[in-house]
Specification:
The chain is of the alpha/beta class and 338 residues long. It contains 12 helices and 12 strands. α2 crosses α11 and α3 packs parallel to α4. The structure holds S-adenosylmethionine (SAM).
């Protein structure tokens, strides 16, 4: 980064929410479409996707992210829906990677198209990648995703490793009676392949969230079970987000537990989400939002746009209420940018 550019970056404490949390991370949804139909995420046959004209263009996304970068955002995760379905994604990555202030660009994907795109994404500036993978058994994977082929994900993971995306983190939503008998298998798989592993609790959101919650599994139980078999030492992971990490003795593997329900982590929340239509969501589990698309299309730019972003951050709620008010959020994870 040139000196001129780094001087142009405003001090990061601009983006402080009403509860004193510094916002330095944006999860950016580039599409709400997905090529998988995980039963707990999207309803079967779901077709109600955002119209093309309502999606932010690359120019509009870049404008917002440039303003966020100037205000102190340092990390951007590209997500969806399935982000690799967005045409020319590596081009967008390259444009975001070049923005002053943005130091860390990552992608969350189901890896179905990763064999095709891993090299181009890495080349364009993606450093690390998160891959959702709930089962290592082909038949079960097909059931959970309503028809997808596990082999394609495994090929995608292989490609990620080969091009040097590091770390590769596997995200497994742990569900009672669905895949809870596979947590040890997933640990062994990640040890063998040098991946990081994170277990995630189901969250009651979207109409499919009730499907997820039927299978809710408290991850404290999973941790207790794993500690009978493995030596778990508390650990940290740079850029590890809300997960609480442990190292598995005798290996390089770090496992993280993301526990929005059994032990929420809202007091350290440092993020906001931007959906595909340019709405900023302040919290995954609340409705507080700030629509930016019309402002952008009316020509709002620069200091005025930054003023809107600051106003939005001023609306960030203290915490989600998944426990107190489950299912109050009807939008899908894939719409908000999970
Ligand atoms: N397509 C990308 C992927 O597969 O990682 C990014 C979007 S996907 C919506 C992001 C994550 O949300 C996935 O790991 C998925 O398992 C998770 N997810 C969706 N609905 C959920 C729910 N109700 N509870 C917990 N996790 C959920």
């Amino acid at each position: 980064m040139s000196e001129v550019q780094s001087e142009a970056v405003t001090p990061r404490d601009d983006l402080i929410d009403p509860f004193g949390r510094t916002i330095e991370y944006v999860r950016l949804s580039v599409t709400d479409k997905c090529n998988l139909r995980c039963f707990y995420c999207l309803p079967e046959g779901h077709k109600d996707f955002e119209e093309a004209g309502n999606r932010l263009s690359f120019d509009e996304i870049e404008t917002v992210m440039a303003a966020f970068g100037e205000l102190g955002v340092r990390r951007v995760r590209i997500t969806g829906g399935e982000p690799l379905l967005r045409k020319d994604l590596p081009t967008l990555v390259g444009r975001l990677a070049a923005l002053p202030g943005i130091e860390d660009l990552s992608v969350s994907t189901n890896a179905y198209l990763l064999e095709r795109d891993a090299a181009a994404l890495k080349e364009a500036g993606v450093g690390r990648i998160n891959v959702s993978l709930d089962s290592l058994r082909a038949d079960r994977f097909r059931d959970i995703t309503r028809g997808a082929e596990l082999s394609r994900v495994l090929e995608g993971l292989q490609a990620a490793r080969e091009v040097g995306l590091d770390p590769v983190k596997i995200n497994m939503v742990a569900m009672k009676g669905i895949n809870d008998d596979e947590v040890e298998d997933m640990v062994e798989f990640c040890i063998e392949n040098g991946f990081t592993l994170r277990f995630i609790e189901t969250m009651p959101l979207g109409t499919s969230g009730s499907e997820a919650s039927k299978h809710y599994l408290d991850l404290q139980e999973v941790k207790a079970r794993l500690s009978e078999r493995y030596d778990l030492t508390p650990s940290v992971m740079p850029g590890g987000g809300p997960a609480r990490y442990y190292r598995i003795g005798g290996s390089e593997l770090k496992i993280g537990f993301i526990t929005p329900i059994s032990q929420h982590f809202c007091e350290t929340c440092n993020r906001v989400r931007m959906s595909v239509d340019g709405t900023l969501y302040m919290c995954l589990g609340q409705e507080h939002n700030y629509p930016l698309r019309d402002l952008l299309r009316d020509g709002v730019r620069g200091e005025e746009l930054k003023g809107h972003l600051l106003q939005a951050i001023g609306m960030k709620p203290e915490r989600h209420e998944f426990r107190e008010k489950p299912y109050q959020i009807v939008r899908f994870m894939s719409a908000t940018g999970g």
